[in-house]
Write a structure and sequence with these properties.
Strand content: 25-35%
Structural class: alpha+beta
Largest sheet: 9 strands, antiparallel
Shape: globular
CATH topology of the largest domain: Lipocalin
Order of helices and strands: HEEEEEEHEEE
Radius of gyration: 22 Å
Number of domains: 2
Helix content: 25-40%
Number of strands: 9
CATH architecture of the largest domain: Beta Barrel
Distance between the termini: 58 Å
């Protein structure tokens, strides 16, 4: 077995630290890249955790600069949104107040958005979940 001396040990420690830092940065880079993937796109609702069929009119969301903008069958909603590596939290927002025959669908969508805690991209689709339970699925 060779003896590396003090400099060999120091170089080994530095290399190990650099590799560990590269692993951490690559993981955070993936999370940031995923976060960028969901912003500045229009996502259309394709599945939800309600037993009723999807609303007749399309439901879309856009996420930009810390804001979530939703177009519901009759109304539009805007609210602050906090997005982390996998965390997703919608704050209290504002909505237009038009009445239509799909108000129950609008209420269901806004309640589901408020329950979301986690997000992920699955086969190019945005999946929003409450805990481990997916509640909304969107396609771009």
């Amino acid at each position: 077995m060779k003896k590396f001396g003090v400099w060999g040990v120091v170089v080994g420690i530095v290399v190990a630290c650099l590799l560990a830092a590269a692993m951490v940065l690559s993981r955070s880079g993936v999370a940031q890249a995923d976060s960028v993937q969901i912003e500045a796109k229009t996502w259309t609702l394709i599945e939800w955790a309600e037993s009723a069929p999807l609303p007749a009119a399309p439901v879309t969301i856009q996420i930009e600069a810390g804001r979530l903008h939703a177009q519901l069958p009759c109304n539009s909603v805007t609210a602050p949104v906090q997005i982390g590596a996998s965390e997703f939290h919608v704050g209290a927002g504002a909505a237009t107040l038009k009445f239509c025959d799909q108000m129950a669908d609008e209420t269901a969508v806004t309640q589901l958005l408020g329950s979301v805690q986690v997000w992920r991209i699955d086969a190019g689709e945005l999946v929003l979940s409450s805990g481990d339970e997916p509640v909304l699925r969107f396609t771009a």
